[in-house]
Design goal:
- By secondary structure, the protein is α+β, with helices and mostly antiparallel strands.
- The radius of gyration is 24 Å and the shape is globular.
- It folds into 3 domains: 127 residues, Periplasmic binding protein-like II (D-Maltodextrin-Binding Protein, domain 2), CATH 3.40.190.10; 95 residues, Dipeptide-binding Protein, Domain 1 (Dipeptide-binding Protein, domain 1); 224 residues, Dipeptide-binding Protein, Domain 3 (Dipeptide-binding Protein, domain 3).
- A hairpin with a 4-residue loop joins strand 4 and strand 5.
- The chain has a 7-stranded mixed β-sheet with strand order 8-9-10-1-11-19-12, with helices on both faces. The chain has a 6-stranded mixed β-sheet with strand order 14-18-13-17-15-16, with helices on both faces. The protein has a 4-stranded antiparallel β-sheet with strand order 4-5-7-6, with helices on one face.
């Protein structure tokens, strides 16, 4: 994507209530930071949508029911839906679109239930049947993936794309959107190389919104003309360990490093109090999550004792090469150009140094980072990984590769975790789900696959002339079709 590094005069919009959005770090190709996600969310929709608690709710499908001992899911499509080309998405067209998505290898890795699907067919104009080889409780939640209908991938969302090139994407409102005509008439997405260039462009009145503001700039940006809106994401920062390599083949070492980090201090110093502590892979707002299970506490003394018990005794002299004394030394892979990640890495490095662990950095361009990560060519890697709101997300990263070919490039293997993941994947019994979730929380504390750090927050900033409708702890762009625009900026009352 071409970056906007200058300060050109802002062109007069064709429509008065045009929303121009700056997308920071769009050129890095990093996780969840580019323009593709927003493009999909504006124009395409799924059969279901997933709430903060991890439960599926209706979208293009108005209801569904399990049949044949949970080996068949019958979905009834919502009536009154019109696609951007003016046509109606009947069950036959939706079945074709869903089969196309299921056939993609990337989707089969990302959505665990797809590997159990044996057939997708229309039963009536509005009834869709999905046959399974075995029960898969993840299926309703997995059906939130966005569907493009027909050979042109026509969407049903509140905005339809009208322009796409390297400099910007443009969407116009879809007047026949089944939930109501959006008030914002046009949305323009512009890419920026860095967080800083994006939010300074907002201050210069070149854009109306940026999708993320760095923590240390939030109070600087907030003023009578600009509102700042924070929300919790289903992503968490963590340092993933390569469990195939020593010392990370030892659960004791992995547990010790989790005890060595002051997560509240990390949130305070690196994120300016915008985040919440994480000590495991499961989303804490998931409906079956057990809050009574005690998480890791900050205990550097116990961390050192565990490392001693694992044979990593305190070093008294350098091991050569000009390096400082260390009981344990490893290299952490970090993508270049992601400022928040870099601040987190430096804070963690200091924390680990206090217990005699030397974490060195290998900072590489994102494309190389991604290649090394997928190959498993690393000791450890700092990543921002989706982990919620359902167990299907941690399942694809931490379930054994012997069972499921997802994204477990870490070599993590734990027989009890594998059994519990399978319970969560196959049962729809709420009592069994609660029991398995509780037990899995404990297993992941005893044998953590990573150094879990912080559930991240995103902080968009929007001009006050746009009246933002917020859903609790959700991205406000999800309700963009309900926003309104004032001809005069709103004065802050905060």
């Amino acid at each position: 994507m071409a970056a906007c590094n200058s300060s050109p005069e802002r062109a007069a919009p064709a429509l008065e209530n045009t929303l121009t959005i700056g997308i920071p770090e769009s050129t890095g190709g990093g996780p969840n930071v580019g323009m593709r996600e927003l493009t999909t969310g504006f124009s395409l929709e799924g059969l279901t949508q997933v709430g903060v608690d991890g439960k599926a709710t209706p979208r293009l499908a108005e209801k569904w029911v399990w049949e044949n001992d949970f080996r068949r899911l019958r979905l009834t499509l919502r009536s009154g839906v019109i696609l951007h080309d003016g046509s109606t998405p009947d069950a036959t067209r939706v079945a074709d679109a869903l089969r196309a998505q299921i056939s993609r290898p990337g989707n089969r890795a990302l959505y665990p239930s797809f590997s159990a699907i044996t057939e997708v067919r229309a039963d009536t104009d509005r009834d869709l049947i999905i046959e399974l080889s075995e029960p898969s409780a993840f299926l309703p939640e997995d059906l939130d993936l966005s569907l493009g209908i027909g050979p042109n991938n026509v969407g049903s969302g509140p905005f339809r794309p009208v322009k796409s090139d390297s400099g910007e994407l443009i969407f116009e409102r879809f007047d026949q959107y089944y939930l109501g005509t959006p008030q914002v008439e046009r949305v323009v997405l512009k890419p920026f190389e860095t967080l800083r260039t994006a939010w300074t462009s907002l201050l210069r009145d070149e854009v109306d919104m940026v999708t993320d503001v760095p923590p240390d700039a939030v109070e600087f940006i907030r003023n009578d003309q600009i509102q700042v809106i924070g929300f919790g994401r289903w992503y968490q920062y963590l340092i993933a360990f390569n469990s195939r390599r020593p010392p990370f083949d030892s659960p004791v070492v992995r547990r010790a490093l989790n005890l060595a980090v002051d997560r509240q201090g990390l949130i305070r110093n690196a994120l300016q109090d915008r985040g919440s502590p994480s000590t495991g892979p499961l989303w804490p707002q998931y409906w079956a999550y057990d809050d009574s299970i005690a998480p890791y506490t900050y205990d550097p003394g116990l961390a050192q004792s565990l490392l001693e018990s694992a044979g990593y005794r305190e070093a008294t002299a350098p091991r050569g090469g000009g390096l400082s004394p260390a009981r344990l030394r490893f290299t952490c892979l970090i993508p270049q150009g992601f400022s928040v990640w870099e601040r987190l890495a430096l804070e963690i490095q200091k924390e680990l140094y206090n217990i005699g662990v030397d974490m060195q950095f290998q900072v590489v361009p994102f494309q190389k980072f991604d290649a090394l990560f997928r190959e498993g060519t690393f000791d450890a890697a700092l990543i921002d990984i989706i982990s919620g709101p359902t167990p299907a997300r941690p399942y694809i990263f931490w379930q054994s590769t012997r069972r499921y070919k997802g994204f477990n490039v870490f070599g993590y293997e734990n027989p009890e975790a594998e059994r519990l993941f399978e319970v969560l994947r196959t049962t729809t019994n709420e009592g069994a789900v609660r029991s398995a979730t509780r037990r899995l929380q404990s297993v992941m504390l005893d044998d953590p696959p990573a150094l879990f750090l912080v559930w991240s927050r995103r902080t968009p900033a929007v001009r006050r002339e746009f009246n933002v409708v917020q859903a609790p702890d959700r991205d406000p762009l999800l309700t963009l079709w309900r926003w309104t625009h004032s001809s005069e900026p709103v004065t802050s009352t905060q």
